Structure formats: C-alpha cells, structure tokens
Amino acid sequence: MEAVRASAAWVASRSSHVTVDLQEIEKVVDKIQGNVPKVEWDFEGIHYFDNGPLTVQYLFVLDALNFCFWPDKDLSYDHLASGLKLALEKDKTALDANRLQNYTGPELRQLLNWPRPLPIEEERVRLLHEVGLELERSFGGEAANLVKAAGNSAATLIELITRHFPGFRDHSLYKGHQVFLYKRAQIFVADLWGAFKGQNYGEFHDINSITIFADYIVPAVLRELGILKYGSNLSCSIDSNREIVPGSEEEVEIRACSIYAVEKMRDLISKKFGKQLLSIDIDLWLWSCGVQNMALSHHRTLSIYY
Ligand SMILES: Nc1nc2c(c(CN[C@H]3C=C[C@H](O)[C@@H]3O)cn2[C@@H]2O[C@H](COP(=O)(O)O)[C@@H](O)[C@H]2O)c(=O)[nH]1
Question: Which residues have a Cβ under 8 Å from the Cβ of 45 and sit 6 or more positions away?
Fold first, then answer.
C-alpha cells in the first residue's frame, strides 16, 4: 500500500519519541544473512479452512474483530481464531450476513465460548453488525464476492474494504497530516494469501505492496531487537504498563516507525543479498517471535484498529 508506506516514512522522518536505528537493522540483516526464518501461516493450527467461500467469510469476520486483546490478561488472538472456528464447525450459518447483524454482546461471548465481557465489547458487536449489513447490501452477503470484486489486486481489495467498511479505516492525524496504517485491512489480505497459499481467493499479483501490520506485538519485538529506540518518557510509560492515548504522537510514531523500519529491512536485504522478500513474511516471523516471548512488554492503547 503506497499510502501506508509513504505516510509511515513521513512520520519516521519527523518522529521525536521513537527512533529507527538503521545500524541495528543492518546488524539483524547480517546476522540472518538475509534469510528471514520461514513461518507457516496458521503455525498454531487454530484457523478454520475449507478451501472455499466460507473460509473467506471466516477470515473477514476474524479480522473485523482482530484487535485489542490485552485488557483481559487471559484473552489472546488464539481464542478469537479458534472460537470462531469451533462456532463455524458447529453451525455453518453462524457467520452468515443476516446473523452477523443481530449478535448481541452476550451472544458473541457465547459464540467464542468466552466466560466474561470481551474488551471493548460494544464496539466488537457494532463492527459485526456493520460487516453483516454492508456485506448484505453490496456483496450479496458474502465476503468472497468482496474479494472477487478486487480482481486479484491486494491494493484494490484494501481500497474496497476501507471504502465500504468504516471500521477498517485505520487512519490517524500526525502533525496535521493524515497517516494510513490499515492494519486489519492488510492483515485480511495476508490471511487470504496465507490460507489459500497464493491461489484462488488468495491470489494477488501485487502482494508485495502490503506492509507489516502495525499492532502491539511487532513494535515490541523491534524494540527488543534494538531497531526501535524509545525516548525515556515513552519507555517508562510502556514498561510500567501505562496506557498510551490513541492518536497521540507517541502512538502514531510507534506504529509508523515499525512499518518504516521493516520496509528499510526489506530494502537492505534486497540490496545486500539480492532477495525480494514480502513484508508479510517478515511480519509473521517477528510476530511469531513476539507471541512466544511472554516477558515482552508492549504498548497499551485502547483501539479498535489493532
Ligand atoms: N503484526 C501482526 N499482528 C497480528 C497477527 C495476528 C495473527 N495472524 C495470524 C496469521 C497467520 C498466523 O498463523 C497468525 O495466527 C494477530 N495480530 C495482532 O497481535 C495482537 C494479539 O496478540 P496477543 O494479545 O498476544 O494475542 C493483536 O494486536 C492482533 O491484532 C499477525 O500475523 N501479525
């Protein structure tokens, strides 16, 4: 996504709370000799997959709700992915567009087999309704039709998603400029690509245009690697689990600098080792390292975007 890449670079060039350390990027690239460890999509074995349109519906609903797990220390992305999978296996109509429009908070909890209110539950329910309503209105109720309408272009699919579904418009303002981060829209494309192995609903001729998905795990891994450096106030807030205000300079810098740093890493691997990597592959490697490191402290922002 050119808009994501360009606005992330714009923020990184003016950033004051977060710095991208280019020398550390070079050290990491040299250490791995340009070979990013290959991590299989669904390495956890938690996602629904039947090689057809229901998988697309599942992934779209999954990514509509793929945000903010940390306020409940026992909840993680795995619960969402496997909860929706089990729900679909029990009832193939559970994610039909007309059903999505009617879920209540307690019903969503029941669907996910989660015993207490989910973080920002009212927003999760509202976003489910939005997805159901717009799928029905513009795409015959099926996320598969949304994907078909993009004609195998990742950039077009992201444009369609953000045009039709306001909940996916992951924008921010930074020093008066609009910054595009599009975490959940991009991750949906990556999930299609990974699940369908670049075929069928997962075939995109411009998959290399996707950046990493600026969540709260990847920045923490980049910081641990020494690639992102935080100023002392920000470091202190993160290490003491103080919340970072959504839309604050700190929050936008953390997310944008993460995107920028990985794009720099990708460029350097290409220049030094002649390898053309996808940001998606670097993301999955970094993210999988992050979720396996329980001691990692990450920034905490209440947000529907990630
Ligand atoms: N950058 C990036 N962020 C990702 C994912 C994924 C899952 N991707 C699936 C695709 C294939 C794999 O097999 C994965 O299962 C979730 N997240 C984010 O992490 C956070 C959740 O963390 P915790 O609270 O510890 O569960 C939350 O912001 C969530 O939105 C990713 O791939 N990249």
Answer: none
